[in-house]
Task: inverse folding
């Protein structure tokens, strides 16, 4: 059975839960290492989602009365 794909928002929520759990310091060392590993992998996955989204973003600009789509990075 295929695992449900996690949305960016769900991933951020899980990452926040992991960080809060680690910050409390009440988790056993072995469990902390597992949470840290999960958080690191999740962080990388979320960064890839952001990078992919950024590459797709287009800004709509109006120049001389003409509307054109411009890559996000070139519009800065």
Result:
């Amino acid at each position: 059975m295929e695992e449900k794909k996690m949305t960016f928002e769900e991933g951020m929520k899980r990452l926040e839960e992991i960080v809060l759990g680690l910050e409390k310091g009440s988790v056993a060392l072995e469990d902390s290492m597992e949470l840290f590993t999960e958080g690191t992998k999740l962080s990388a996955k979320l960064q890839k989602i952001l990078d992919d989204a950024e590459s797709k973003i287009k800004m709509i600009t109006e120049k001389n009365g003409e509307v054109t789509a411009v890559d996000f990075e070139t519009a800065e």
The longest helix spans residues 29-56.
